[in-house]
Specification:
Elements (H helix, E strand, L loop, with lengths): L4 E5 L22 E5 L15 E10 L2 E9 L17 E7 L6 E9 L14 E5 L2 E9 L5 E8 L7 E2 L13 E4 L5 E5 L10 E2 L2 E2 L21 E4 L12 E2 L2 E2 L17 E8 L2 E7 L6 E6 L6 E8 L10 E5 L2 E8 L10 E7 L15
């Protein structure tokens, strides 16, 4: 915990948009938690405060909001530039009736012990629904310490989920997010550099060029690596095509360069569709912005537009964007409760598309 903490009741709406987190599986219990007494500096308050959560992927299924985040935990693994200290081992699912309402923790829905091929580091997940089945997509490291992406299937948005015995064929790296297009096609976007290992691949082939986080990245004056897209198979369990790299261009149609740290892709790709345009938002990682780029189709090329969310407290920035009853929201995280990079807490705030289609930049701090 940071220095400026005091005990206050958890069940207190400090901001119209944010509900304070409540303990697991209950909807009306007041608990005592430690929170910062500098709450007023934040745009929103933590949604969950009895454990740590991050990388929230939010969806509306059957009129209810479901959130699929990472479950951050303390561990003995020392911090490094490859994110070894993000040593998460399971997932919980949460739901909310509205973004300003109470949040329910539906408990653990999948653990590393339930996934035959996964050894550690269950990082940012996502979920999708198709024909009454629910699919939880997640990255994890295998026994060779290589990230792959797995899928677990359930009959309900809150699980239980049963993992497929093998990772998705041809999958690699981290941060899967699965987008359902208006025509009923589903696409997975994935990838993340440094600890996310994307820089170790070219044309979907592993080419290890060294252990440092930047080994394998293009030179600063070369095009940056983009996130990867693949259409999903009808059964949602495999890729239906060879994954392709997405291009992100600047306002002149030139590729964003690897040295352009404030605009280049790092991790946390998310797609939403607004006014028939595809909005790719992503974290610029070591410069901590959530940036966005627009395209006319799911594959791009995407043209860089600006910043959705300015840097939050903590090293990582990772979000999702969801429409709820005609209004748009961003789910994101920061480290308000712990002050520690790897112990994060999820939040929500309104997101506004302006008349010209641009997104009004959100400041996570007041
Ligand atoms: O939570 C672990 C990793 O941190 C995620 O996969 C990244 O997007 C970053 O948020």
């Amino acid at each position: 915990m940071n220095n400026l903490v005091k005990l206050i009741p958890a069940y207190c709406a400090l901001f119209a948009i944010a509900s304070c987190g409540k303990p697991s599986e209950t909807t009306d219990v007041t608990s005592e938690i430690e929170v910062s007494d500098t709450t007023s500096k934040y745009l929103s308050q933590p949604l969950i405060s009895d454990h740590y959560t991050a990388d929230p992927s939010a969806h509306v299924f059957d009129g209810k909001i479901y959130i699929y985040p990472s479950h951050d935990v303390e561990s003995d693994v020392p911090e490094d530039d490859l994110g070894a200290h993000f040593n998460m081992m399971d997932y919980h699912v949460y739901s909310m009736d509205s973004p300003s309402g109470a949040i329910t923790d539906h408990g653990k829905v999948l653990g590393a012990e339930d996934v035959p091929w996964a050894k550690r580091q269950l990082w940012a997940p996502d979920a999708a629904e198709k024909d009454g089945k629910y699919y939880l997509y997640f990255p994890a490291k295998d026994d060779k310490d290589i990230f792959k992406i797995g899928v677990a299937v359930g009959d309900s948005p809150i699980g239980p989920f049963t993992a497929q015995p093998e990772p998705i064929k041809g999958s690699y790296s981290i941060d899967p997010s699965v987008f359902e297009d208006s025509d009923g096609s589903y696409y997975m976007y994935f990838g993340g550099i440094w600890g996310g290992q994307l820089q170790k691949y070219r044309n979907n082939k592993f080419e290890d060029k060294g252990a440092a986080p930047t080994d394998g990245l293009p030179a600063d004056d070369e095009p940056a690596l983009g996130p990867i897209i693949a259409k999903m198979s009808d059964d949602m369990l495999q890729f239906a095509e060879t994954p392709k790299e997405i291009k992100i261009l600047d306002e002149n149609g030139a590729p964003i360069l690897n040295g352009d740290n404030d605009r280049r892709f790092f991790e946390a790709a998310w797609i939403h569709k607004y006014m028939d345009k595809y909005y790719l938002s992503y974290s610029t990682g070591d410069t901590h912005f959530i940036a966005y780029a627009i395209a006319d189709n799911p594959y791009g090329p995407f043209t860089y537009q600006g910043v959705v969310l300015n840097p939050v407290e903590g090293w990582t920035n990772h979000h999702s964007i969801v429409e709820v009853d005609g209004n748009w929201f961003i789910y994101y995280h920061d480290t308000q409760l712990s002050g520690k990079t790897h112990l994060r807490n999820i939040k929500v705030a309104p997101l506004k598309h302006l008349e010209d289609g641009s997104i009004q930049t959100i400041n996570p701090l007041n």
